């Protein structure tokens, strides 16, 4: 039985679909939405911005605010409550690290950024390969 679901969500439409799928497929489960910020990029933009902040965790939470607010809106549409979490670092590593505390992970097949479209599914593929629990990849 699936009691605890981790949904990795970014600011893409597929991230939203991942949350909707998790809610519909596991209506009685406790759902936690995880957003990972500040991972290294080609220009180090996100990582540098977070690293230079006075309060790193606060800066990460500010960057995650829009995504997590959208997650709460989706949950409200279904009449449920969700937990939210923010991690700093590489998305795949952060998701896999958190996964062991859950029964399953739900992730979108790829994110919405240009880099994600060029390297379609890199995070989803890594999570799928390394997760200690079952993973559902949503398109």
UniProtKB/TrEMBL annotation:
Gene3D superfamilies: HUPs
Organism: Halalkaliarchaeum desulfuricum
Family membership noted in the UniProt record: Belongs to the universal stress protein A family.
Domain UspA: 1-139
Lineage: Archaea, Methanobacteriati, Methanobacteriota, Stenosarchaea group, Halobacteria
PANTHER family per record: STRESS RESPONSE PROTEIN NHAX, UNIVERSAL STRESS PROTEIN
Gene assigned in the entry: uspA31
Alphabetical list of SUPFAM superfamilies matching this protein: Adenine nucleotide alpha hydrolases-like (SSF52402)
Name the UniProt record assigns to this protein: Universal stress protein UspA
């Amino acid at each position: 039985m699936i009691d605890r679901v981790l949904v990795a969500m970014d600011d893409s439409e597929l991230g939203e679909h991942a949350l909707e799928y998790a809610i519909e497929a596991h209506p009685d489960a406790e759902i936690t939405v995880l957003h990972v910020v500040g991972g290294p990029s080609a220009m180090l933009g996100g990582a540098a911005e977070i690293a230079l902040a006075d309060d790193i965790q606060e800066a990460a939470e500010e960057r995650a605010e829009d995504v997590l607010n959208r997650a709460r809106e989706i949950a409200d549409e279904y009449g449920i409550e969700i937990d939210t979490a923010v991690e700093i670092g590489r998305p795949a590593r952060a998701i896999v690290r958190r996964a062991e505390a859950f029964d399953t992970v739900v992730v979108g097949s790829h994110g919405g950024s240009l880099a994600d479209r060029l390297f379609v599914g890199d995070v989803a593929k890594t999570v799928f390969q390394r997760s200690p629990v079952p993973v559902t990849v949503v398109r």
